[in-house]
Amino acid sequence: MVILFREKEGLQEVRLLSPHLQVLIRAHVRERPVRVLLSVVGVALGVLASTAIGTANVEVLRSFERSVAAVAGPAALEIVGHDLGIDEKEITRIRRSGGVVAASPLVEESVVVLSGDHRGEVLQVFGLDLLSEAGGGRLQVDEDSREQVIDDLMAPDTVYVGRSLAHAWNLQVGSILEAGAGTQNLRLRVAGLIHGKEGRESLWDRVAVMDIAVAQLAFDSIGRIDRIDLVVEPDHPIDDVAATIRSTLPPHLIVQRPSQRTAQVENMIRSFQLNLTVLSWVGLLVGTFLIYNTMAFAVTQRRKEIGIYRALGMTQRRVSMLFIIEGGLLGLLGGMLGGIGGVWLSQTLISLVSRTITDLYVPLESVTTTQWLDVRSLLTVINGMGFGAVVAMLGALAPSIEAGRTVAARALAPGDYEQTQQLRSRMFVAVGLILFVLSGLCSFMGPVGGLPLFGYLATLCLLAAFASFSPLCIQALGRRTALRDGASTNGDVKLRVIATEHAARHPGRNAVTVSALMVGLAIMIGVVVMVRSFRETVEVWVNETVMADLIVAPPSWLQGKQIGHASRALPISWLPVLSGLEGVDAVDTYRDVQVMAQGQSAMLVSRDLRLHARRSRYLLLQGDSSAALNRAAETGGVLVSEVLANRLRLKTGENITITTPRGPKIVPIEGVFYDYATDGGKMVMDRSLYRQLWEDDLVTVFAVYLASDAAGESVRRTIVRTFADMKGAVAPPIVIKNKELRQEILEIFDRTFLLTYVLELIAVLVAVLGIVNTLVTSVLERRRELATLQAIGASTKQVERLVLWEAVYLGLIGAGLGVGGGLAMAWILIAVINKQSFGWTIHMTVPVGLLVQAVTLAVSAAWIAGYFPARWAARQSLVDGLRDE
User: Fold this and answer.
1) Which residue, 113, 116, 206, is CA-closest to 163?
2) pLDDT at 729 over 70
């Protein structure tokens, strides 16, 4: 069939292009199914990682936003008291403020289930004015339960549970739910089921509610509430109403819009989610290399076809568009598969992300996962297809332009493409050096809006710089091997020489494969070195600062960051009980609350600083811990964490202003210490000063120091038995050994970085697919060469080893560049990105064993990737290999 292309007859060109393109793509898929499959799978894996993380991040924040909106209802403002709550007497004053239509008090609490199949799970309980709420407020009571609302409303054991929660936990009206909140044991009777006002599933379907008076009694919060929701008159500006109310309230209470709570959480975790998002893009980056590889091979192998098309009149632009469209179609298919896989993977990642945020930042309710075949999952798949198509077209751009520049007269000349690439190796080196300089300059730039954008740019420049050296390394390896082993008569040595010479003859295409492996390996090494360094730094910090022998804490203390007054506090009356036990030398009362310091939200810790100076210490940036603690106790000063000092630009000897219930308090800073428990900042104050300013006697945990001759396990059992024998419905606290607490901290750390290992694995897997792609196509290109070797006496095993040696050499080069790039990237992650994102100082350590494992992994992966192409090459027909095309 002859096809004529006439530039002036545009309609004819358009008519002929579509079937022509279909024929080309069908032929490519039919003749090279393995390579096409590898390309599609590579793009799919990259899209899978990015869409899954993106979906998880969006769903987690969206769930929190829905929860805030469901609880706030029509409220335009809310008053928050944080850990100390709000005196309910303030409600009367607030309701008299101009512009306020209604003020609804609310109690929030987290309880731990004590029995049944869901023992140990945390349930959020809200205390509301059920008389007004059930009559058309923020929630509705099911029809079957509505008749009994008035009768059961004020019963001391009454609770209403959401429909979804009741179904999941097999609860019905009349079921008994045993739970614990702090030191309180509760036996709750399910009096009815509730659901959201709008009928669709919301927060109310997954929580429990009580009448606010019952909740105050059950949670030992008489006279205290957690939040007040305000409905404002439409004709009154909300900001003016907020300012009026703020002027009448104690200074430590916060007046804000409900949406500000979502914004605060988003700001708090944006660095964490941005790091996950950037890491998830690694798979897409490596997938771009894979598509580049595929299309470059297609251009090289179809050079003769391209020459025929050019001779028949096809324009450069048309030839380029053929390959770009082909790459885009491969990307669409890979993106569709990756989008479907991303929806599936996000179901797991959502729970991991929400658990990590609960551990580190703020309590989150269970997140509703994306359902199959709904609008959101469909949009995720469509976005995945778009990502895949864009990535594939970008990867196919350079080979497509190269195809369009093909000169018909030279189309049959072998090696033209690779010769062109060889002539550019010096240019690549120059570009690499420039990128190194840019990476260094970006590393010294500050954050933008609190985000390390220049740090990410430095990482990108660094990886691109190492990728630019790939062609030179491949050529250098070929020359070195040929000079060293060229005179050898050993057969296996000769095979290695042939393998390296062949790799050196194709630096352009092999450099893409090496770069893909280098990127995957460098990111794996960089992240693992950063995580290992961080973990070792945290271990040193834990060993230096967690010095108490036993910790007495509320039962839900290890369940992550919980909310509520009762679940996070113990009574001060327990202090003499603990101090009087045999084997106990001293007891420290540790209390932490959220406060404002110079406009920055921070954690305030109060404890007996003199006792802490004798029995424990903080790891200071400079100076002696005992001296600083004693000095703070004497002067009424504080010690601040490194993160808070950096954010407020303060140092030892300066003053800091803290908002207290009695007004702003200016205190001196007596020391700055390392802290890795929170990225929001922390202050430490003497217990006596805290009680004077906040009038709060509650304790978060008791730190128990034992006598030198006391047996830790024996004292532990005594504490548990003592509180179990107390009169009343008192839930025994958990008593944690020093070693167990350290282990729990490290387990939270490991759980936090679990997602990074999943994303790294995907990146390395895509890079390995690139090696398979390279070698399969290499075998196809060298069928005549391999057949000639067999014809002159090469055995099947020798042909296999030839291909395997080429795979191993590519793996070695990728591993060498990956180690160098990974170590440099680790430094940027530690000193730039992590420092600007979270403010933590991490001491970098380079585990030699890890580097050896990484190199072994890369070479082994390359060998495994080359095994099947090698076996296939050795079993090709000798006659077919020598036959003219």
Assistant:
1) 206
2) no
CA triple 340-37-419, angle to 5 deg: 130
Compute the average pLDDT of residues 452-462. Answer: 89
Q: What pLDDT score was predicted for residue 692? A: 92
How many Å apart are CA 447 and CA 837, to the nearest integer?
8
- The 3-class secondary structure across 121-141, one letter per residue, is CEEEEEEECHHHHCCCCCEEE
Please provide the DSSP assignment of 85-98 as one string: -EETTHHHHHHTST
Token match 């007596």: residue?
670
- Confidence tier at 39 by pLDDT (50, 70, 90): confident
* Residue matched to tokens 């309910």: 88
Span 275-326, pLDDT tens digits = 777 777 776 777 777 777 677 667 766 777 777 777 777 778 888 888 888 8
Determine the residue type at 636.
G
| CB of 807 closer than 8 Å to CB of 643 | no
Residue 448: DSSP 8-state: B
Spell out the residues 6+ positions from residue 163 whose beta carbon is closer than 8 angstroms to its own: 142, 193, 194, 195, 205
Split at pLDDT 50, 70, 90, the class of 885 is very low
Task: Report the candidate in 499, 480, 503, 483 with the shortest Cα–Cα distance to residue 491.
Answer: 499
- How many Å separate Cα 445 from the centre of its chain? 24
Q: Widest CA span of the chain, in angstroms?
A: 102
Full-model pTM = 0.74
Q: Is 655 left (phi over 0), alpha (psi -120 to 50) or beta?
A: beta
Structure tokens at 216: 């105050």
Residue with tokens 């805290």: 690
- 98-124 per-position pLDDT tens digit: 888 888 899 988 888 888 788 877 788
Q: What is the mean pLDDT of residues 682-687?
A: 94
Identify any residues that bridge with 620 across adjacent strands, giving them in sequence order. Answer: 673
Question: How far, CA to CA in Å, does 628 sit from each of 611, 615, 669, 704?
Answer: 13, 14, 9, 22
For residues 532 and 534, give the distance between their C-alpha atoms in angstroms, rounded to a whole number: 5
Where are any strands of DSSP class E within 495-622? Answer: 550-553, 584-597, 600-607
Categorize the per-residue pLDDT at 774 as very low, low, confident or very high, splitting at 50, 70 and 90.
low
pLDDT for 536 equals 86
Per residue in 40-67, pLDDT (tens digit) is 777 787 787 778 777 777 777 777 677 7
Q: Give 669's strand partners.
A: 638
> Residues of the chain with pLDDT > 90: what percent?
11
Q: Which SS3 state, helix, strand or coil, does residue 107 take?
A: strand
Q: What is the DSSP string of 850-863?
A: HHHHHHHHHHHHHH
Closest CA to 44 of 327, 293, 339, 348: 339
Give the tokens for residue 10: 């545009």
Cα(513)–Cα(810) distance, rounded to whole angstroms? 8
Span 646-665, pLDDT tens digits:
888 899 999 999 999 888 99
Residue type, 406: T
Q: Cα(138)–Cα(196) distance, rounded to whole angstroms?
A: 7
Indicate the Cα dihedral angle 334, 509, 779, 43, nearest 10°: -10
Q: What's the average model confidence in pLDDT over 383-406?
A: 80
Q: How does strand 158-162 pair with strand 184-196?
A: parallel
Q: For residue 235, what is the DSSP state? A: T
Q: Which residues pair with 657 in a beta bridge?
A: 666
How far is the C-alpha of 149 from the C-alpha of 143, rounded, in Å? 10
Give the whole-angstrom CA distance, residue 222 versus residue 226.
Answer: 12
With a cut of 50, say whether residue 415 has pLDDT above it.
no
* Number of Cα atoms under 13 Å in the Cβ half of residue 142: 18
- SS3 letters across 286-313: HHHHHHHHHHHHHHHHCHHHHHHHHHCC
Nearest CA-CA partner of 778 in 34, 24, 28: 34
Helix, coil or strand: residue 118: coil
With CA atoms as reference, report the closest residue to 676 among 834, 494, 873.
Answer: 834
